[in-house]
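About this split. The held-out portion is used to measure sequence recovery: a designer receives only the structure tokens and must propose an amino acid at every position. Recovery is the fraction of positions where the proposal matches the reference. Here is one held-out target exactly as it appears in the evaluation file.
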């Protein structure tokens, strides 16, 4: 029989599910992503549009609002249709997406849908469409 000093103490470590560990590794490997609630300024987006280096601009207003004027090159998927039309976004879930609506409420809902679907680089347009137009920036 072993003496109490010779016994080894077994420490039970909680097991981390493999999927959780792999998820952390994947997120770290994907590079920098936009922080939750990240914002892009109107000026930066305008500069990037002019330079041909623009991210996907996602306009989540209604089709009628979009037709009446939108940011050049924007893709229109109304916020209440986004969950069913994700395949239209194309690209990788790590690609930068700038979301906007008229004033911000619908964009916030769309950003939650995107985050829930695994999109990691979503940014909110400062001032949204109202601010874009107020600044005199180009509209198609």
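Reference sequence for scoring:
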């Amino acid at each position: 029989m072993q003496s109490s000093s010779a016994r080894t103490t077994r420490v039970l470590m909680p097991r981390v599910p493999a999927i959780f560990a792999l998820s952390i590794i994947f997120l770290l490997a994907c590079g920098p992503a936009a922080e939750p609630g990240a914002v892009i300024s109107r000026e930066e987006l305008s500069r990037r549009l002019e330079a041909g280096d623009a991210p996907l601009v996602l306009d989540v207003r209604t089709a009628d609002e979009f037709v009446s004027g939108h940011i050049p090159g924007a893709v229109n998927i109304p916020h209440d249709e986004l969950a069913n039309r994700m395949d239209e976004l194309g690209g990788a879930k790590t690609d930068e997406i700038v979301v906007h609506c008229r004033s911000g409420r619908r964009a916030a809902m769309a950003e939650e849908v995107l985050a829930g679907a695994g999109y990691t680089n979503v940014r909110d347009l400062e001032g949204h469409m109202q601010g874009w137009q107020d600044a005199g920036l180009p509209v198609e």
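Annotator remark: Confidence is low (pLDDT under 50) at residues 18-33.
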